[in-house]
Amino acid sequence: MSRKEKREERLIKGDEALEARGLDLDAPDEELLPALIAARGEDPDADLSIADLMGSIAMEEAARHLVEWDKASPPDKDLTRMIRKSLFRLQQRGIAAAVREVPPVEPVRIFDPVEPAGYLSPMDGWGNRLTWLTRPRPEGGLVVLTSLIGDVTGMREVHEFFANKGQLKEIFADAAHHSAQPAAAPHRYVDWLMWDAYRRGVPRDEQGGGYPLLRADFYTEVPSPVASPVHELIGAAGATDDERLLDESAQLFSEKEFSGWALPDDLVKLHQARFRDAQDSTLVLSKEAMTERLTGVIDKAFDEIFVGEGRALYATRLQEMALWYLLAARDARDRSRALTCYALHRALADSQRRLKEVSFLRALAFRSFLHLLPREGAEQEGPEPTAPSLIVRPD
């Protein structure tokens, strides 16, 4: 049984113990709080439930009791964790008394001269990527904080564990085998990405609410926004180079990192439904007329997505892919890939730039409809349709 499962079992037992003593756990907060305070100290499992329940009572008095309880340093580690989690929940709800005092003397580990190390994976087609922070432990080995973050969904998972350098190397090698090698990145930037993701979306799992506590193993201060290092690393790229790179940009889909890229369902599902409706129409159309109708659907999807909210979204995603290629630096081709991604970022960031001539974006739109094409049409080899069709097969 995992530690989390054991805590859940203790909470169930604690609730049962409180109800056996006559407490109505569904009572109004004004009645429940004094009853919980009076019941403290009778049973370890009940205390765990009391700490959890007090975190849902948005009252200054509840916060003050939790703070005093925390200061008493209970020997039960699960209880200490639950008290601090409840204080964090109350702090998020604006209860001033829930703010814990910063100890006047900081832990010795803060003065450790060895800075954390940061690592990033490339983004997938849905804007998700893995982030890592590592720091040497005084007793040996590394403490590792890893998180799955999304540029739309926020922080989806977060975990902390201990490992030695050999084990971490194996973890990264496994990641490289299944997706891509994590690239060493400035730790302050990785920290900011995690923090910003957490602000936008907290993980569902129980440990997710404890991310600020996990982060305290690395930093004590709230991070300031950190700009992507790509702008300093990329160097100047001339407009002529950009035009060539944009023309050839669909070649990125031959790279492993872009193999799964397609437009997100929430942006394209309406257009996919229109595409199906056009195919299922009872009107008898020539092949050319049907191609024109289907092309029109993809054209409209392209316009709405890359002129609307999708433009800024993909500008940032391509910026971050440029950064990853620069940081990974696996071979001489990585700088070329980085320059291509950065040229795409700049084209998307320029509100005056026409985008239908950009081969990567045309191919990205097409890939989102490829599975809806008739099988023989999807497998047919031959020349691409002529302009202005967006049905362009990736190189």
What report would you give on this structure?
By secondary structure, the chain is of the alpha+beta class. The chain has helices at residues 3-20, 29-39, 44-54, 60-71, 77-92, 165-178, 187-200, 211-215, 230-233, 239-247, 265-280, 287-307, 309-328, 333-349, 359-367, 375-379, and strands at 117-120, 128-136, 142-150, 154-163, 183-185. A five-stranded antiparallel beta sheet has the order 4-3-2-1-5. β1 and β2 form a beta hairpin. The longest helix has 21 residues, at 287-307. The protein is globular.
Strand order of the largest sheet: 4-3-2-1-5
Q: Which sequence of SSEs, written as H and E, runs from N to C?
A: HHHHHEEEEHEHHHHHHHHHH
Uncertain ranges:
105-112, 236-240, 376-395
| Count of DSSP strands | 5
Tell me the distance between the termini: 50 Å
**How much helix, percentage-wise, in residues?**
40-55%
CA radius of gyration:
27 Å
Query: What structural class should be given to the helix and strand makeup?
Result: alpha+beta
The total count of helices amounts to 16
Write down the overall geometry: globular
Q: In percent, how much strand structure appears in the residues?
A: 5-15%
Largest beta-sheet characterization: 5 strands, antiparallel
Mean pLDDT: 83
Any key phrases for this structure?
globular; 5 strands; 395 residues; five-stranded antiparallel beta sheet
Structure, briefly:
The chain has 395 residues and is an alpha+beta fold.
